[in-house]
Design goal:
Distance between the termini: 21 Å
Largest sheet: 4 strands, mixed
Helix content: 25-40%
Number of strands: 6
Structural class: alpha+beta
Length: 99
């Protein structure tokens, strides 16, 4: 398991995820968004022609659909996004994605 930093225009959060997700974060995020748009199981995220979701929804997707035997979990909430400030030292080299 490796750490990633993700956000959805709110707090930046560190999650421990399977190595494959951390190593290919962009791919998994794109797959998630494709699932949101196309899967009949994702209708609750579609509202008024758009999508409404957050980083917790991505983690739920990983835990229930992609890696049910390697559950991702929250490590730390880093607080509100401030793209002008660096990440705290333990997370400087983590993959980052903002939905």
């Amino acid at each position: 398991m490796k750490n990633i930093v993700i956000s959805a225009d709110g707090d930046r959060k560190v999650f421990s995820v399977p190595d494959a997700v951390a190593d290919h974060l962009l791919k998994y995020c794109k797959d998630f968004i494709k699932w949101l748009r196309n899967s009949p199981d994702a209708t609750k995220y579609r509202m008024r022609g758009g999508l409404c979701y957050g980083e917790e929804d991505f983690i739920e997707y990983l835990n229930t659909r992609i890696f049910p035997n390697q559950r991702s979990k929250l490590v730390e909430n880093l607080g509100w996004i401030d793209f002008s400030s660096p990440l705290p030292e333990p997370y400087v080299d983590c993959p980052i994605f903002n939905f």
